[in-house]
Amino acid sequence: MRGRDGLTLSHAWAEGMRTKHGIHLHGFPNAFMVQISQGANLVANVPHNFTEAAKTIAMIVRHALDGGYREVEVTHEAQDAWMELLFSAPMLGVIGSPDCTPGYYNNEGQPGRVDWFLGYPGGAAAYFEYLDGWRNKGDFAGLEFR
Questions:
Q1: What is the 8-class DSSP label of residue 8?
Q2: Please, are residues 124 and 142 in contact by the beta-carbon 8 Å criterion?
Q3: In this predicted structure, what is the pLDDT of residue 88?
Q4: pTM of the predicted model as reported, rounded to 2 decimal places
């Protein structure tokens, strides 16, 4: 995937996955991720996560169309703030510790943070409640519409 000025996703994430809500990527206007990382995460009901992401994306697209905008993109500051919140989670380091048997969840035992495995610190239900409030507020804080 290529974003603004030819930026590749692999280059943007060379030091680790970075999003806002697990959906928005700075440097990639009009790109939306629909996946489980950096949102509710660790939720057994994966379709619920996808449904919430779809509702959010649909409301953002509707807002862009209604406002005559051609692009929507998360700000770098909003993405960084989201990542700081995720890294504040007390579970960080419990799952995916490099001391565990090497495998998928700890980057084959390599040191460092497993950014894709992060989730909302309050858990899935709290994330869904937060996301519902964020999107229904209607200003889509942290996103730029151009």
A1: B
A2: no
A3: 87
A4: 0.85
DSSP secondary structure, 10-52, as one string: HHHTTT----BTTTB-TT-TT-B--SSTTTT-S-S-HHHHHHH
Residue 77 has a CB neighbour count (10 Å cut-off) of 11
Please provide residue 115's backbone torsions phi and psi, each rounded to the nearest 5 degrees: -60, -35
Angle at 64 between CA 62 and CA 5, to 5 degrees: 135
In 3D space, the residue among 122, 116, 131 whose CA is nearest the CA of residue 48 turns out to be 131
Q: Which domains does the chain have, with CATH numbers?
A: 4-88+116-145 (3.50.50.60)
Q: What is the DSSP letter of 73?
A: E
In this predicted model, what pLDDT tens digit does every residue of 132-143 receive, in sequence order?
999 999 999 999
Q: 10 Å Cβ neighbour count for 119?
A: 23
Give how far the C-alpha of residue 112 lies from the chain's centroid of Cα atoms, to the nearest Å: 19
8 A C-beta contact, residue 28 and residue 73: yes
Task: State the DSSP code for 13.
Answer: T
What's the residue count for the chain? 146
